[in-house]
Design a protein that fits this description.
By secondary structure, this protein is mainly β. Helix content is 0%, strand content 42%. Strands 9, 11, 14, 16, 19 and 20 form a six-stranded antiparallel beta sheet that branches. Strands 1-4-5-6-7 form a five-stranded mixed beta sheet, with no helix packed on it. A hairpin with a 5-residue loop joins β2 and β3.
Length: 257
């Protein structure tokens, strides 16, 4: 993470404006120092108490609190956009993983299609014979990366014994690199497909995130979206619209501290 611009004293504050390309225009008044760059200034930039700094990569606004290098993030509004977010599909990540046939576990790293946007992963149990008698109460483990390209794993909810079942995770995966499927029962003809659900990952991490409005295909959602926030794990920061995704654009306006 780097900060690309130091603070400059401005003379006439009127507006902070961010265009679609992430550009910024900053004007200042009353001798307040204002600056912009990429990354958090906390512990990096020394400035007068009360100075402002805008991290244009998110964006996030910070205020200097001690006249040195301590900065506190201020409340900001983030525009989240997911272009043509595909409908949930049970086999969109992997079309089918068959039981090894000998009572051993299976780890799959090929034949995987990554989600169209960071979103939650699902797994569905079935079998070739159709009687589901060999499906055990086991849990699929997904390994991949999050918004920040960090390696993450998630153990999905447990399958129901002897039942065709879809289970859904809660973390947002940008990529899937490995799928672990525990051994099933005899006659070992179980089939597991892996896909993704309707929960989308947010590109910000914060202890509290509120949604002002959400839109699907430019239509305002009549019921509020479900937001999950985390200050430490960006893969756990998600939005779930009330409507099912259908390949249309998703827009949401979020308040973060």
């Amino acid at each position: 993470m780097s900060v690309t611009q130091t603070l400059a004293n401005k003379s006439a504050f009127s507006l902070v404006a961010i265009n679609e390309a992430g550009g910024i225009a900053l004007l200042a008044a009353l001798g307040v120092k204002v600056g912009a760059g990429t990354g958090s200034p906390n512990g990096v930039i020394t400035a007068e108490k009360g100075s402002l700094f805008l991290d244009v990569s998110v964006p996030k606004l910070y205020m200097n609190t001690d006249g040195a290098t301590a900065w506190l993030q201020q409340m900001g509004i983030t525009h989240f956009y997911a272009a043509v977010a595909a409908a949930a599909a049970a086999d969109s990540v992997h079309a089918g993983i068959t039981d090894a046939g000998d009572g051993t576990d299976s780890t799959v790293t090929t034949g995987i299609t990554n989600p169209d946007v960071p979103r939650n992963i699902t797994a569905t149990s079935d079998d070739v014979s159709g009687d589901n008698a060999d499906i055990k109460a086991v849990q699929v483990i997904i390994t991949g990366t999050n918004w920040d390209d960090e390696v993450i794993t998630e153990t999905l909810p447990i399958f129901t014994v002897n039942s065709s079942d879809l289970v859904a995770g809660s973390k947002a995966f940008k990529t899937v690199t490995s799928i672990f499927v525990p051994a099933m029962d005899t006659p070992y003809d179980a089939l597991v497909t892996v896909g993704y659900g309707d929960i989308l990952g947010l590109p910000v991490s914060a202890a509290h995130i509120s949604c002002i409005d959400a839109f699907l295909d430019d239509t305002l959602e009549g019921t509020a979206a479900t937001i999950v926030a985390s200050a430490t794990a960006i893969e756990s920061c998600t939005i779930d619209l009330n409507s099912s995704l259908d390949g249309s654009d998703v827009d949401a306006y979020l308040i973060t501290p």
